[in-house]
Design goal:
Layout: E1 4-15, E2 18-29, E3 33-37, H1 44-51, E4 59-64, H2 73-79, E5 80-83, H3 95-105, H4 112-117, H5 133-144, E6 151-155, H6 163-178, E7 182-186, H7 190-196, E8 199-204, E9 207-212, H8 214-219, E10 225-231, E11 246-251, E12 254-259, H9 262-275, E13 280-286, H10 290-300
Parallel strand pairs: 3-7, 3-8, 5-6, 6-7
Antiparallel strand pairs: 1-2, 1-4, 8-9, 10-12, 10-13, 11-12
Length: 303
């Protein structure tokens, strides 16, 4: 059974002679949180705008919950919620009025509960122009959820939010996943992507450089695993290369090694400890972070 709710196949988008999105393909399953990462100008927002029906594609096919976003805008509006990276409302409108307007457009009763959920109910007397950036972002998200969408697109949703508001938004995204909502998330926040996303696509120069779970992405490529080790009698210090483990630093009683073949390097280190009749008091194996892998891909280009 095909669980794909969002499908993008061979998407191409040009602006004049410049190809911004070049043959991008991916699928997103029901209730999945799918992240799009990439440097500025990589094509993330353009890809989302094509899915939202805002931009007309120059090639490829797309489906959002069974509808073609390029052809069936009415059906798309019934199934897709969108929080744009940059959006605005009339300066004089109040949150409650904005919610009433959007819900009326969908033929629904106003969802004032969503305003309360995101902590902006008390802002009902404040005009949009008087709201802070964080308050506006929370209002935009509440409006995006007003039609109970099957799919929601969030483009830099936590921009301008304080720590508590970010945590609340992350909880809300996880709650949406639990209710079966499919989420596409574009973000520059590596920790956010690694924490929230089931899978991630890294886009560079209009191409998908890699796609997979955060663990799959960070374990691939050339970045090395870090092994931090402390023994009872410090038999491995001062540090040196041991087999596949390349010594890089000593911090107090800890030695730090880098390796490509993690299992072999750990076994070689432990064998050396055993050879000296020593014992391990602390051993940590840390794979490269998503940010390190991201920078590696940018420096190396599309693989």
């Amino acid at each position: 059974m095909d669980d794909s709710v969002v499908s993008v196949q061979g998407l191409i988008k040009r602006y004049g002679t410049i190809t911004v999105v070049n043959n991008i393909s991916f699928e997103v399953n029901k209730s999945e949180i799918f992240g799009l990462l990439g440097p500025n100008g990589a094509g993330k927002t353009t890809t989302l705008e094509c899915l939202e029906g805002i931009c007309k594609s120059d090639g490829g096919t797309m489906r959002v919950n069974g509808c073609n976003p390029q052809l069936d805008r009415h059906k798309l509006h019934q199934t897709l919620g969108v929080q744009l990276q940059s959006s605005s409302l009339p300066d004089g409108i109040r949150p409650g009025e904005a919610m009433s307007l959007i819900c009326s457009w969908h033929g629904l009763l106003p969802r004032f509960d969503l305003l309360r959920r995101f902590g902006i109910d008390y802002q009902n007397k404040k005009q949009y122009s008087e709201m802070s950036t964080g308050q506006k972002r929370r209002l935009h998200l509440a409006l995006a959820l007003s039609c109970d969408p099957a799919v929601i697109i969030l483009d830099e949703p936590t921009a301008g939010l304080d720590v508590q508001a970010r945590a609340d938004l992350h909880d809300a995204i996880r709650e949406l996943k639990a209710t079966g909502v499919t989420t596409l998330l574009a973000t520059h926040d590596m920790a956010e992507a690694e924490s929230l996303c089931d899978r991630i696509a890294i886009i560079i120069h209009g191409h998908i450089a890699t796609i997979g779970t955060p663990a799959q992405i960070t374990s691939a490529g050339h970045a090395e695993t870090r092994i931090t080790l402390r023994t009872k009698t410090n038999c491995l210090l001062p540090g040196r290369d041991i087999g596949n483990a390349h010594f890089i630093n000593q911090t107090g009683d800890y030695g730090i090694w880098l390796c490509r073949d993690t299992a072999t390097a750990v076994m070689e280190l432990l064998k050396e400890v055993q050879h000296f009749g020593d014992s391990v008091e602390d051993l940590r194996v840390e794979r490269p972070s998503l940010e390190e892998r991201f920078l590696e891909l940018i420096e190396g280009g599309v693989q």
